[in-house]
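writing this on my phone so excuse typos. first protein, seq and then structure
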Amino acid sequence: MKKKTKSSKKVKIGTESMRKGKKFEDDIADIYRLLGGKVFQNIEICNKKVDIFVKFKIPGSSSEHKIIVECKNEERPVNQNVRIMQFKGILEVARKSGEADSAEIITRVPWSEQAKGFALKSDINLLTYKEKISSLMDFSPYLKNMIDRFEKGKNATGDDLPLSKYFVTPILEEDSIENKRKKIKDNKNFFKSWINGENNNLVVFGEYGIGKTCLSKKIAYDFAKIFLNDPNNRIPLLFNLGDFTKSMDIESYVSSFLDRQCDVSNPRFKLFNLMNHAGLFILIFDGLDEMASRVHSDILELNLNEIEKISNSPKAKTILTSRIEYFINLKEERKCLNPQGELLPTREIKYERVYLLPWNEKQINEFLKKRVKSIKVGEKDWTYYRDTIHENPSLEDLSKRPVLLEMIIKTLPILVAKGTPLNRPNIFETYLLGELKRQKIKKGRKFIISEENRMILLQELALDFIDNDIYTTTYVDAIKYIKQIVKPPRDELEECTREFLSCSFLNREGDNYKFSHRSIMEYLAARALFTEINNDNLDKIARRKFPKEIIEFLSEFNVNKITLWNGVIKSRAADKKIYQFLGANCITILSKNDEDFLKGKDISNTYLYGADLSYTNLNNCNFNGTSLINTNLVGALLLKNDIKSAFLKNITIILGVYSEDEKLKKENIDEYRDHLFNELEEAFNKHGVEINICLSQFQENCIFSRFQVTIPDNDALFNIEEILKNNSYINNYSIYSNEHEKLLTKITKPSGLIFDPKSFLLGEIKIIIEKKRIYL
């Protein structure tokens, strides 16, 4: 076999270098084509060969601007001044003959400051490839506007205080290698560090009203300032996914965004994509959960596919925000955010997760100090609000969410003065009515639509949004509501509709109107249902399963329990197609309003499809023939005899498992846990039982595990009891509430393990992890 000679190696290296050089020239030529130039490659100008020759039509003229371009795909600078001088000679001759007007040299590596100065004197434009791409679109007006809005707001007075004046740095958590969440130490600089890290895609999870949008604006603001100070950094682009109620077309959306939001001169998707592939952007997609909640899995997958069209570039950086509840279960979350783990993945991107936590006392106090003095509500200082919140448990949970804390600040003095109970419905109602009155005074005119009709309009609109999972309306659709409820004279119809849309907590984006915050919409929808219930009308309650946020609001209203209980009883004989959710919605609201209301009740033969009976006292209820379908029984107090005669299908419950063994040591506990988990999971799966979450706690010689499981039917419930009874690893187990109590009593005394019954039942645990296991 012949050895390769040095000359053959040089030829191979030279050929490869030529190929890369040609590719570099072609890429640059494509840039000029995208800019609208007429491009010629490798032609002679004044008897000298040039890499690229470009002609641009001068707007408003028949003349053309002609550019000669030299391309250098080198890994290090070589003879820069000499090359500039040579190219200057070509340019001077070409100008005299009218064959060129300007010249550019584009390289892979940066130019030295000396070379830049020499080129400036020679009237030659020096650019790196990245700098050339950066010049395709000018985002500086967009970034300056973003900074201006953050620092000054729309109107830097009164309630329009800019976000910069009261923004509070959030506390973030991230997933760790041990499948536990850990707090991020440097929250202020986390996103700056992440940009320089290896992971390109990040999802920020947070509850409603917790500040995901404010955080997105702060991230965009910070990076806008960094870029304008040093253009070698990335450009932040903030996209609002709430613009979409079904599926999105990323190319059309980006083109529209570039034109309307950024006001760039060349709002073309191809130019944007080229810049994105070069790693020039931070793509911030705010509010995946603001897209319609009834979007089925295929539409969700299509939307993520559209986002991936621009975020899957090796150099792209993408941040996505969402409520974690937007994904209906752990399986869907894994599939969407880590598709590589799927058998037949349709996408490639894996998202790193961080979690936006509710505010702690320090953050609440910081916000109060900043915000109270600007809102001008009464003469109380921030400590008054702090102390009142501490004295009212119902306010403490609300205050952990920025949006609701601001409502508290605005409404608290009014509620206290009237002696009104401090709960969420009263806070929202007082806030909304107060804002309407403030608008009336601020505008100095009388509204055409009365407060009563306006609230009815808003409630109907909110309920229709929730009912149809379409969270926007148009001017044309709003007219229908005005006609039906206000019934104005024909010549006042347009005026009424305009007033309603402009003065009713609605924001316009393009041609569509939506509520300024989701929690306002949820309150108004709940208020509409409350009115129906108290009017002894359950038609709207029966037509769909309402989101838990609506149910939670309703549980705080003084609902008519007799009407709701009649709805539960009516589900025995009601048409399942028309009244599928009647019994479930009624009994869920009752159980959340009063957890002891159902104790000892006769709910035999009722149809409870999708009911949430978690933490409800169901002792001694008559379940004979009751249909418990897709029912949540986590933490419910009930005995084995209570539900043995019910029809069970896909119910969710808690299992407790206790093991004690002298061989159980810290060094072998992980192996023991995994073996127990895998053995139970395999045995359960044979009967269609799915383990949703497992929490384990260990102390020397003993381990206690809590499983949240979904059980398909009555037989499976019997079978898992047999599995637990016969498992050699398990000393004691519990399924029903009396068994839980006995097990807790039994294990805490000999082992010294301490368990809170509430946490034992998993109700307050919001951690979701990939392996479904959490080791404490």
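second protein below, same order as before
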Amino acid sequence: MTVGRVASAVVLGLLLPGWCPAEDGRAAEIAGIRVGVGGCYKAGVWTPVEVTLRGGSLAAAGQLIVQVPDGDGAPVRYATTADEPCTVDAGRESSVWTYVRIGRSRGAMEVEFVPREGAPVKRVFRAGEPSDGSVFPEAIGPKESLLVVVGPDAMGVDRAVDMLRVQAGQRARLARVADLGRLPTQWYGYEGVDAVVVSTSRPEVAGGLRPGAPQIAALEQWVRMGGTLVVSAGRRAGEVLAEGALLARFSPGKFQRIAPLHQASVLETYCNSKEPIAGRGIGGVGELRVAQLAGVEGLVESREATLPLVVRRAMGFGHVVFAAFDLDEPPLAGWPDRGLLAGKLLGIAPTGSEESRESAAALPYGYGDVAGQLRSALEQFPDVTVVPFWVVVSVMCAYLVLIGPGDYFFVRKVVRRMPFTWVTFSLVVVAFAAGAHLIAQRLKGDRIRVNQVDLVDVDGRSGLVRGTSWATVLSPTVEQYDFAFDAANPGTTGSPAPKVLVGWLGLPGEGFGGMAAPTTPFTPWRQPYDGSAALGAMQGVPIQVWATKNLTGRWTAATEVGATEAGIEARLADADQGLTGSLTSRLDFPLANCRLCYERWVYDLGDVPPGRSVSLSSAFPRVDLKTFLTGRRVLFEENRELSNPYDRTSLDLNYIIRAMTFFKAAGGSHYFGLVNRYQGFTDMSDLLGTGHAVLLGAVAAGPEPASRHGARLLGNNGQTLHSPGDRHTTFYRFLFPVKKTGKGARD
């Protein structure tokens, strides 16, 4: 009887392993993963990954390692720090958050848990393949925008996306998140997100968070770094926007009270709707109730009398769109044109057919994003000669002729000893190999080369500094490198060096080498390299002989507002006839080709040396911004406009950075034939209409290296990789508040 019971227990243990918390003796097992925000993510950007661990018979603590391919197909590992181990209780599940860059749209992810005691456990997940307890889909397309909606209802964003796809051929993906507690806890977890829409109509949307929660802090930091947030707050505005409340930091004014809106036709006009908003009788079930604010800051896009309904407010380098009503409550919830209103709030209204231009751009260049053009420009080294394809073909043909018929006739007719072919054949092979090596070394050189461009943004109101670096490294040998960026703080003397987020830069596109290509590029590297636990460096990055690696770094710092070393002192006002006031450079280096942009105008300031002041008046020459960017001209005889086509083959960094800075202002992808999804945070077009001016200038050439003003790329042992002759360009952009005076002054 005892033997039978033991046998039964063994059989049950084999057939039903899921009844046990984990295999006996195993510290834990990997139950599943969730990749992205709301189950959506982009390849090539920082992406949140939630790993669920299931404890075994004993509690365990250890290190979590996630391995994914980079943009070139090489494996890279991201590990949690040993100082803060991952813990899981016996028989329970625990979630661990980490952040990685996934380089392939259809890649694999290897997750490993290494406990302090016991054997490590490993599990491999493949994008798009079903797996119990996991959400790991394929990455969204390289030209798709990612919109995140927080709340139980899509709030019309789904309808806006559908209309955009049908009317303009644009593509967007909608990700749904139930509550704020499911959002990333680090700002860079939003790097692939174009906009976030938050509903406040239900208490459960808060997710049990308090105002100091890391999810709220990360959301705010992302907005300040260039993100777009839409907050819909109506009936419950007092609970979430009052001083000290969960979302108070995103409010454009001080909450006063909830007021009924008797004339909602203003919203119909705002989004060009021809459908009336039904059921808005006074005191009725469908009455539209709105949040009334005092001391509103920002651009009021829609109002009813003195009641602001839609306010667009700059926040750092991003902006918040505040809607003083509930999109997911009656009467708007049942309104047929709610999608038009949602699209207007998000700024994704159709602007014309773009599909054909985007597709045409991707075919010859291998990319459909302006980031690909920037990457291509950085891969051009002035003193490195690229051998033309016809020369390579000619040399190959000559080689084949010599080792084939040439060798045969030489041995048979001249030497007349056929066994001598072993000598002549070997000599030809050695001669061609040595010649190819010497020629390549002469053309490509024997030292590391670096091309780099830095973009440093300074907010004149808050003192926030945002920096971005893009670099391409050319290696003369097969080598493994450690990479990090040492960023300069343009603040006061003694300011601490900013912390830089370092990662590889992939090619956004479906062409050869692109992250969305149907095939994975061949890589001889099987041993993974490491991204540091703090994501501030990459270690052991392999580069083939005379091959390149593309890198990117992002950082943020703070300066004292008005500090004399921090930037440019601006006193600007808008008196309905253009900008007036003055700009004074407090920098200790000159800026070249400075252009000041405000609303729809651009002012050419030329070069601005240290200490120079520029006075602006209504008589100062100005040009229409879109005309300046596109060369637009009007043909009155034919009653149409013509623009100079954007040169997608240009390798001029000034030209590319200007396009990235004012991408939307120039007409977006309808004009450029490219999208701006991967570096969309660099676009400052939306800030031009929020009472701010943008100054763009380049660090003029001088005795000081450009890295003094931007960031230095560090290699092995912390040594600077830049050397004389390398191309390093730094651009500065300053964001200034403009005081509105005259008839156009805001309330």
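The longest strand covers residues 464-475. thats all i got for now
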